[in-house]
Amino acid sequence: MIEREKIAGLVERAIESTDAYVVDVTVSEDNDIVVELDSATGVDLDFCSEVNRLLNEALDRDVEDYSLEVGTASLSAPFKVRQQYEKHIGDDVDVLTCDGRKLKGRLTSVSEDGSEFTIEVTRKVKLAGEKRPRQVAEPLTLAVADCRQVAYHFDF
Q: Model confidence at 127, in pLDDT bands (50, 70, 90)?
């Protein structure tokens, strides 16, 4: 079986002079290799093809057979790395916490180490002296470890 770390290292070398980053690398027991890439400016088909070509040149099918798929992280897929949080600062995100809460808010920041992020959630609050509740935006900081998933919010 081809080692995941070997593939991850090859991918890092293939993208080192670009603004792209690795979102995920998986290698199955049958050597089905899937590489997910992203960048702040987006990843196109030509870039994925070039990375695929470089990986194929570095691997030897005569030694060990494999299948290889290089693509971009889906916009609807949950965030996996800090750079995805950074890319979506200012965008609305959906959060599912480990305790089952579903939150929607505007992503405002992510910690330097990627362990926490802050969203601005809107809730109704009745302020003193007012008859009707008002929508108020409040910051909420969450630990990534306390969330099952965080993903870009789509409005249809």
A: confident
